[in-house]
Specification:
Length: 195
C-alpha cells in the first residue's frame, strides 16, 4: 500500500518523518516526539473525534531493521462527541500503542505490495497509522454513563429529567374503540349507585 492510495490530510503532512539517517543502518534508532493540531472533523465520520486544532501527541521510536524501519510508540489525544442516547457531550482520553514495520520497497514481492506498508522516499508516513489507531480506540456508540436513559422516542424529552415521563400510545386502528370501555365503566358505576 502506498500513500498515493490514501486521501491526504494536514495530519499526513505533519506526521512525515525523515528516516534517511537510519536506512540501511540496522540497529540504529532515533526517538521522536511531535505534537500536531488535529485537522477538521470529518462530516459523517466517527462519533468520537479529536476536535479541530486540539493536540495529538505522538511519541515514537524509529528503529532500523533488516526489512525496513520499525516504528513503535504511542499516540495520545482527547476525543469528543455526543452520547449516543441523550446527545450530551462526551469526552474520551486515548493513549494508543503504535507498532508498524515500514518495509523497504525492494524487499517486498510484487504480489505482497498491496498489503504491505512501504517506506517511501526514505520517509515514514505516520498520518494514516495515527488516524487508524485513533479510530480503532474511539467508542463506536459513546455513552455519558452506562445507565443513561436517553431521550423519549415519542417527543425527544430528556428522560434523565423525569424518569416517569411517558406517552399513552394507541394504535390508530383501535382508536375508535378507546371510548367504548370508558362509557361501559361509567354506565356500570351509575347502575351501582342506583342499586
Amino acid at each position: 500500500m502506498t500513500t498515493d492510495d490514501i486521501p491526504t490530510s494536514p495530519l499526513d503532512d505533519a506526521l512525515r518523518f525523515d528516516a534517511v539517517d537510519l536506512v540501511g543502518r540496522t540497529g540504529t534508532h532515533r526517538r521522536v516526539e511531535r505534537t500536531v493540531p488535529a485537522p477538521a472533523r470529518e462530516a459523517g465520520g466517527l462519533a468520537m473525534q479529536v476536535p479541530e486544532g486540539d493536540d495529538i501527541a505522538v511519541e515514537i521510536e524509529l528503529e532500523s531493521v533488516v526489512e525496513g524501519i520499525y516504528v513503535h510508540g504511542t499516540v495520545t489525544a482527547e476525543l469528543e462527541g455526543e452520547c449516543s442516547r441523550c446527545l450530551d457531550p462526551v469526552e474520551q482520553d486515548v493513549d494508543v500503542r503504535l507498532d508498524e514495520l515500514f518495509l523497504y520497497p525492494e524487499k517486498v514481492r510484487a504480489e505482497e505490495r498491496e498489503d504491505a506498508v512501504l517506506l517511501e522516499d526514505d520517509e515514514v508516513h505516520l498520518g494514516p497509522l495515527v488516524r487508524d489507531a485513533l479510530a480503532m480506540e474511539a467508542d463506536e456508540r459513546p455513552l455519558c454513563r452506562e445507565d443513561c436513559p436517553g431521550l423519549c422516542a415519542q417527543c425527544g424529552f430528556r428522560m434523565e429529567d423525569d424518569p416517569e415521563h411517558h406517552h399513552e400510545v394507541i394504535d390508530e386502528r383501535f382508536a375508535a374503540l378507546k371510548g367504548l370501555f370508558d362509557d361501559d365503566a361509567q354506565g356500570e358505576d351509575a347502575q351501582d349507585g342506583k342499586a
